[in-house]
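Researcher: I'd like a candidate sequence for this fold, 287 residues long. If you have to choose between options at a position, lean toward the conservative one.
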């Protein structure tokens, strides 16, 4: 059984947390970690029926949230549709009466080069990775502004402008960097409220279901950490006072080490620490 090395007295009890892309992987673990405090957790996801190619449904996450001690609200929502997002936010407020935390976790992964990436697929990257977070924050903003400790977390990378990252998969890079630019803009725009807006990114490859579907479970797990490391890092970030830190680009490692977690071995799936692969955008691109 997994035992987290992360310990804190800070809690999300009584808070309302909205997590997009929460049917599996990182989003599921973020939701369940919040539920362990007794939080009310709104689950926004497109997958409501089992998919033979990739595990996880929103109903399964709702069951896990309930089992962890939280109150789930499962909402089938395609973040590419702003009307669907706006309706989802209304459902959250009707059910829970507030929104304190928004985690923009839903993401699209497509590493094809320009010659192979059709414009419709490029648009999908932008729709999921940029337009979706924008729509969710736009709709949730009046409710976040009323929270006593409001946080927005974008699962997006630091802005590493090395041309090597663009040349390999410009479509994916542009989409994720645009989400990071939202972090910069919103942090400044919402500072006086205050609403903390930060980007969080895995320091190493994590064994998300999307990565395993794209690259194979054995390949990913041999060089990765578990998705639980992101769940613990999000919890640490959003239980801090909103005025304490905003506009930052952080890794899960940075956040947890600041919490006093010096040994991250509990999160490791790779056989050895040296087998871990640095995540995209955090190091020079491979030659």
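Model: Candidate sequence:
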């Amino acid at each position: 059984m997994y035992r987290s090395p992360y310990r804190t007295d800070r809690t999300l009890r009584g808070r309302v947390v909205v997590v997009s892309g929460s049917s599996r992987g990182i989003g599921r673990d973020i939701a369940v970690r919040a539920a362990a405090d007794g939080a009310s957790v709104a689950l926004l996801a497109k997958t409501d029926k089992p998919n033979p190619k990739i595990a996880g449904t929103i109903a399964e996450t709702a069951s896990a949230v309930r089992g962890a001690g939280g109150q789930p609200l499962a909402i089938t929502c395609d973040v590419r549709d702003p009307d669907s997002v706006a309706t989802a936010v209304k459902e959250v407020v009707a059910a829970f009466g507030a929104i304190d935390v928004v985690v923009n976790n839903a993401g699209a992964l497509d590493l094809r080069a320009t010659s192979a990436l059709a414009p419709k697929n490029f648009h999908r990257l932008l729709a999921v990775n940029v337009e979706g977070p924008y729509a969710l924050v736009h709709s949730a903003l009046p409710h976040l502004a009323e929270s006593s400790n409001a946080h927005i977390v974008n699962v997006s990378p630091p802005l590493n402008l090395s041309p090597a990252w663009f040349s390999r998969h410009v479509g994916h890079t542009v989409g994720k960097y645009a989400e990071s630019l939202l972090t910069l803009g919103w942090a400044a725009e919402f500072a006086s409220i205050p609403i903390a807006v930060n980007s969080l990114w895995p320091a190493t490859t994590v064994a998300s279901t999307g990565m395993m579907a794209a690259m194979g479970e054995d390949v990913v797990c041999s060089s990765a950490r578990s998705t639980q490391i992101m769940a613990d890092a999000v919890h640490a970030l959003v239980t801090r006072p909103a005025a304490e830190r905003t506009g930052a680009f952080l890794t899960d490692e940075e956040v947890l080490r600041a919490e006093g977690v010096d040994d991250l071995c509990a999160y490791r799936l790779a056989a050895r620490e040296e087998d871990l692969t640095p995540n995209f955008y955090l190091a020079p691109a491979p030659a």
